[in-house]
Amino acid sequence: MTQAILREIVDYANRADPYPLYEELRKTPVSHDGDGPYVVSTYYEIQSLLHDPRISSDAKNLKATGDDPLGQGEEEGSTLPPSFLKLDPPDHDRLRRMTNRPFGPPHTPRRVHDMREELGGLVSGLIDGIATTGNLDRVDLVDQFAYPFPVSVICRLLGVPHEDEPRFHVWAETLAASLDPDPDADPTQHGKGAMDARMELGMYLAGLIEERRKNPGDDMLSQLATADGPDGSMTTMEVLSTSALLLIAGHETTVNLITNGMLTLLRHPDVLQRLREDPALSVPIVEELLRYEPPVQLLPQRSTLTEIEVAGVTIPKGASLWLILASGNRDPKRFENPDRFDPDRKDIQHLGLGSGIHSCFGAPLARQEAQLALSELARRLENPQLLEDPPPYRQNAVLRGPRHLPVSCDGIRP
Amino acid sequence: MTAQRSRDGALEHLKREGRIVVVGASLAGLRAAETMREKGFAGSLTMIGDEPYEPYDRPPLSKQVLLGNAVAQHTALPRRRAIDADWRLGVPATGLDMAARRVRLGNGDEVEYDRLLIATGVRARPWPNEEEGALQGVFVLRTRDDGEGLQRALAAGPRRVLVIGAGFTGSEIASACRERGFDVTVAERGSAPLVGALGGVIGEVAAEMHRENGVDLRTGVMVTRLEGDPAGRVRAAHLSDGSTIEADVVVVSLGAQRNTEWLTGSGLGAGPRGIACDAGCRAFDIRGIVTDDIYVAGDVARSPHALFGYQFLSLEHWGNAVAQADTAAHNMLSESADRRPHLWVPAFWSSQFGVNIKSVGVPPMGTELLVMQGSLTERRFVAVYGYQGRVIAAVTFDNCRWLPFYEHQIETTAPFPPPFTTVDRRPEGNKPVPADFPDPSIPSHGPTITLSGYSPADRKMTFTPARH
Ligand SMILES: Cc1cc2nc3c(=O)[nH]c(=O)nc-3n(C[C@H](O)[C@H](O)[C@H](O)COP(=O)(O)OP(=O)(O)OC[C@H]3O[C@@H](n4cnc5c(N)ncnc54)[C@H](O)[C@@H]3O)c2cc1C
User: Fold this and answer.
1) The pTM is what?
2) pLDDT digits (tens, 9 = 90+) for B451-463
3) Which class for B309: exposed (0-12), middle (13-18), buried (19 or more C-beta within 10 A)?
4) pLDDT tens-digit profile of A263-317?
C-alpha cells in the first residue's frame, strides 16, 4: 500500500506524459501513504520547503530509508564521500563555496561567459558531424548531439585531456545509466558495472589531480586541487567527489534539457520558426522549458529534522520528502495556463533549477549550453520532423528525458 | 446625475482627465508614477523634484560608486514604462495649500492637483557646526552630487579617510575605502557599528569585521570638532577622548532628516519624524484626521503596521519605497473598498567588507537574540530576534537564502525561541541572549529603523522602553 504514489511516479507508463498524474497529485498538496515518503506537489509548498532550514539533504537524518526505489544515489556502494549535493551546512556551504571559486562570481565571473566560443565550436562540430553521416532521414538527436555535447563541455571545464574524452564518455554513460533503474536488467550486473566505472573514473581523476597539483593549469580540476583560499583546501577525496558530481549532475541534466527542448520545439513549430529567425529568443525559451519540461523532475532526497506542518499535514521528524518540482511548475495556483508552453510569459519563474542553498550549481553553464544548442539546431536543421511522438523515454523518473529523439530533416544549413 | 453615478463618475473622471502631482522625483515617486499609468491613469502627471536629475538609484552610491566600479552619473533608475509626465526638475516644492489643492514651487509657480503624492524622502544629517561642515574635504552621502564629490576626493588618493558614524552607510563607506587601500578611521558614538539597527551582539560581529579589515575603529567616542588648514581644507578631527585624527577626507554619516519643512504651516501632519499616514498611505492632517487626496510613500512616510502592534514605522529601505509607492498609487486611483494596506515586511540589505547582510522584520523591537544557523565567529549565520515570545526579526550574514523561511516565521508570529532545530545549528544557538540594543534615551547615530508609537487603540504616545 505504501508505495501506491511512488509506484505511479516511477511507473514507466507515465514517463512520456507525467503531467496528468501530477495534476491528480496536486489535489493533495502533501500526499502520503503507509510508511512511504511525503510527496509534495504544489508550487508554494515546495518553494518554501526548499528554503526551510528544518529540512535536511543529508541521508543520515532519514529515520528509515525503506526500499525507496529511487534512493540509490550517485555514491551508492562507492568509497567516495558524499558530494555537497547530499550535505547540509556548514559542510555543504564550504564545499560549494570552494567549488564556486574557480567557476563563477565573485571570484571567476567570466568563466562560463568565456566558454561561449568553445561551446559554439563544439555545437558546430557536432552538427557538422550529423551532416557528414549522410543519413538525414533518421537522426538521433540524443546520441548524435545532446549526449556528446555536455560531456565534452565538462571535460573542457575540468581540464580532462582531449585524448581521454572517449574514456570519459564511457564512464559518464555507464554512471548515468546506473541512475536509471532498469527493471529488466540483472541488478547485480547493473550495479557492478556502475561500481567498476566509478572506481575507474575515481582512479583516473586521482591520477589527474596528482598531476595537476604538480603542474596546475587554469582548468577547474587544477584549481580545486590546489586551492588554498579562506576555506583552506579540499582533500583529495573531496576533489574526487566534487568532480564526479560535476560530471554526473552537469551532464545528465543538460542532455535532458536539450532533448526535452527540441522535442517541445518540434511540437511547437511556430516557436521553432521564431527561434530560427531570432536566436535571442533562446533565453526565454530555455527559462520556459525549465518550467514546462524540467530535466530534474523531483528531489527525492530531503528529510525532516523535526516535526513540521505543511499545508495542514503534520510530517514527523525523520520522514523522507519528495519534492515534485515538475508538478509545482504546472501549479495553476501559481501559473496562468500552466500546461501551455509560452516563452512570452512575463516574468518566467520555476522550480526547474531548484531554489535555496542547493539550487543548481551549474545553472549558468546549463543555460548557456541549452541556449546555444537549441538556437543552433533551430538555425541549421532544415525542416526537421519528429519521427516518433512520443519518443522512447529513459526509465528514470527523476532525470526525465527521451532516450532517443529520432528526427528527419531535409538538409543541414551551413 | 444620481449620487451613485457621480461617485463612480468622479473616479472615472480622475482617471481620464484628473491632475496628479508627485513631489519628490526619486525612487518612490517614479515607481508610483509608473504604477498609476499602468493602472490606466490618463490625466496629467507632474513630477516635481528639487534635484536637477532624472530619478536615480542611491544604494550604488555607497557601494559600486565609491569602489570606482560605477560612476554616480550613471545610476539612473531603469524605467519600467513611459510615464508621459510634466517634469519639473531642479525646483523644490516650497508650500502646500490643502484647501485650494495647490503646491507652491520655489520659482513662484503653483501647480494644482486632484491627488498629491508626497515622496520627498530624507536628506543626510549635516555636520552640526556649519562652518566646519563647509570645509573642503567634508562630505555627506545622499545624493548623486555627494557621490560624485566623494568619488573625486577618493580618486585623489587621500592619506586618511575619517568616517563619522558607523551605521549601514558609514560602514559601507569604510568598507569601500579599505578595499581601495586607504587608511580609514571610523568614529562611532555607540558601542559598536550597526548597534542602532541590529543591536550590540551583532554590533560586536560588525566591529570585528571592521578591525579585521584594517579599519581604525573608535567606538564610544564623539567627534567634537573638525579642524581646517588656512586654505579651508579639512585637516584633522578632535575626539571626545582627547585624541586627534589627521584626515583629509571626512564623511559625515549621522543618519538622516526628513524632508518635511516645506509643509510647515500647511496643516498636514508632517514633522521631523516624517509624515504620518494610515496603512493605505493617506496622510494625516495635524488634527489626526486622514486626508483623502494626499498620499505619502517612501523614506518620508511613517505608517502603522498591523504585524508590529500597529506601531508607526519609518523605514529608510529601498524595498519599502517601491512597495509603498505601489500601494499608494493603487489607492490613489481606487474606490475606498478597493484600497489595499501597505503590509510590507520590512527588509534591508547591505554589503560591506565582502559580507552580504540582510534583515527582515524590525530588529530594534527585539529584546532577545538566538543564532539559529551558523556561527557569529565565522560571520556566516542566521540570527532571529525575539520580542514577547514571538519572532520579530531575523538577520543573516552571508546566509540570505534562508531568509524567506524566517520572513514567514515573522509573518505568522511564530514563537520565540523557535521550538525546533535546523541544519547547521551550533552550540551557541542553544540559548537566547539579550539582543543588547542601546537605551533609546541615550542618543546613538545610525539607526535605519526608528520606531515610535502611537497605538491606534490608546492613541497615547509611548516611548519604546529601554532594552536592558
Ligand atoms: C548611500 C545610500 C545607500 C543606500 N543603500 C541602501 C541599501 O543597501 N539597501 C536599502 O534597502 N536601502 C538603501 N538606501 C536607502 C534607499 O536609497 C532609500 O530608501 C530610497 O532612496 C528611498 O526612496 P524615496 O523615493 O522615498 O526617497 P529619496 O530617494 O530620498 O527621494 C526623495 C527625493 O525628493 C526630493 N525632494 C526633497 N524635498 C523636496 C521638495 N521640497 N521638493 C521637491 N523635491 C524634493 C529629494 O531631493 C529626493 O530627490 C541607501 C541610501 C543611500 C543614500
Assistant:
1) 0.88
2) 444 444 433 333 3
3) middle
4) 999 999 999 999 999 999 999 999 999 999 999 999 988 999 999 999 999 999 9
**CB atoms inside a 10 Å sphere around CB A383:** 11
CB contact under 8 A, B420 and A305: yes
d(Cα B325, Cα B27) in Å, to the nearest integer? 9
Three-state secondary-structure class, residue B29: helix
Distance from the CA of B281 to the center of ligand 1, in angstroms?
17
B374/A89 touch (CB, cutoff 8 Å), yes or no: yes
* B254-302 pLDDT tens trace: 999 999 999 999 999 998 889 999 999 999 998 889 999 999 999 999 9
Interchain contact, B404 vs A93, CB within 8 Å: no
**pLDDT tier at A194, thresholds 50, 70, 90:** confident
CA distance linking residue B164 with residue B132, whole number of Å = 13
Q: Which helix (H) or strand (E) holds B311?
A: strand B311-315
Q: Residue B51 CA: which ligand 1 atom is closest? A: 47
Closest CA to A234 of A53, A72, A245: A245
pLDDT of A69 strictly over 60: no
First to last CA, chain B: 63
Mean pLDDT along residues B343-347: 92
Q: Extract the runs of DSSP E, i.e. beta strands, from B17-159.
A: 19-23, 44-49, 86-89, 93-97, 102-105, 110-112, 115-118, 122-124, 138-139
Contact A217, A159 (CB under 8 A): yes
Residue A251 pLDDT = 76
CA of B120 to the centre of ligand 1 (A): 8
Q: Which one is predicted more confidently, A1 or A25?
A: A25
The per-residue pLDDT of chain B, averaged, comes to 91
Cβ of A56 under 8 Å from any chain B Cβ? yes
Q: Which of A108-112, A375-379, B399-403, B425-429 has the lowest mean pLDDT?
A: A108-112
Closest approach atom of ligand 1 to CA B320: 19
Segment A230-239 long-range contacts (CB within 8 Å, at least 24 positions apart): A231/A94, A231/A97, A231/A98, A234/A95, A234/A98, A236/A206, A236/A209, A237/A80, A237/A81, A238/A81, A238/A95, A239/A205, A239/A209
Extended beta strands in A204-287, E state: none
DSSP string, A100-162: HTTTSTTT-TTHHHHTHHHHHHHHHHHHHHHHHH--TTSEEHIIIIITHHHHHHHHHHHT--G
| Alpha-carbon gap, residue B342 to B55, rounded angstroms | 23
Residues with CB under 6 A from ligand 1: B 23-24, 26-29, 48-51, 58-59, 61-62, 92-93, 119-122, 141-142, 169, 259, 262, 298-299, 316-319, 321, 348-350
B108 C-alpha to center of ligand 1: Å? Answer: 25
Reported as type and span, the H/E element at residue A299 is: strand A299-304
- Contact between A229 and A98 under an 8 Å Cβ cutoff? The reply is yes
* B window 383-442, beta carbon within 8 A of A: 401-405, 408, 420-424
Cβ-Cβ pairs closer than 8 A, A with B, add up to: 48
pLDDT in tens, B143-191: 999 999 999 999 999 999 999 999 999 999 999 999 999 999 999 999 9
Residue B154 in 3-state DSSP? helix
- Chain A residues touching B404 at Cβ < 8 A: 48, 51
Please tell me whether the peptide bond between B60 and the residue prior to it is cis, using omega within 30 degrees of 0: no
Structure letter (DSSP) for residue B465: P
Other C-beta atoms closer than 10 Å to the C-beta of B25 total 26
**Selected residue of A44, A47, A51 to mutate for chain B interface (largest B Cβ count, 10 A):** A51
User: Which chain B residues have a beta carbon less than 8 Å from that of A311?
Assistant: none
Q: Roughly what angle, to the nearest 10 degrees, separates helices A363-380 and A269-277?
A: 90
ipTM (interface pTM): 0.85
Q: For the beta carbon of residue B5, count every other beta carbon within 10 angstroms.
A: 10
